[in-house]
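Me: I hope this is not a bother. Any chance you could explain this protein sequence and its structure tokens? It all follows right here:
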Amino acid sequence: MRSKHPISERSACRLVGMSRTVLHYEGAAQPLNEQLKGRLVELAGERRRFGYRRLHVLVRREGWRINHKRTWRLYREAQLHVQRRRKRGQQLIERQPLVRPATPDATWSMDFIFDTTSNGRPLKILSMIDEYTRECIALEVGRKFNSDDLVQLLIELFGIRGVPKFLRCDNGAEFISNRLRDFLQRIDVGASYVEPGSPWQNGYIESFHSRFRDECLGCEEFRTVAEAIAVITHWRQGYNHRRPHSSLGGLTPAEFSSQCAASDRPTASLQQHTADSVPQPLLS
């Protein structure tokens, strides 16, 4: 805006210490930035709870040679901020550090998480992860899930991945049942139970549950169990193979697992551990 005082543009710029080139500069259009911004919007639509750091990892994987500052600037221009969810008041409790296992398949964590279908009927979901690689080993969805179902699932998983040294869980009825205890004792797998009212002792599965609810359960409405199984299975595949994990140096759990030396994995097979110990009807 020009002043009413009789002063030239050159003199005015000299008075305020501004270059006339800067005054008349107009930014050139940058189609590459618009393409990148559009891609960030697409990825944010697919991963609605991802912030700019994780989106930056995804676009870098696609071949965009940019730094995080450029991603952040375009992220803000596109107004892709993730809404922060309010936290409930928490008690100040002294927590003990959770020791991470030294090898893959050394300790598996498992727990239940609950949701509902659109008609209000409950969904019971058993989640299981490898604490070392952060892989989601299983997400079993159903209306109910008892100790017999749990033992049958473990037999199937042990046959695929081998037998871990420990299973970490809380004191839920399915986990402390005699059926499960006898099964684990026969195949020489330890059960590490957390203290009642101490969820931080099972911190890996609790952290996984927060991501699972934030990125999947909190964003979807299931009409049937079959629909829930399909959506959750798809999310689990994305979590293991496409979702970068900050604690793994930006790798996905599947990529991190593939980098682990084969010698670090337990080599005992299901047959070695269960040939004489598992009740025959479960193997038929």
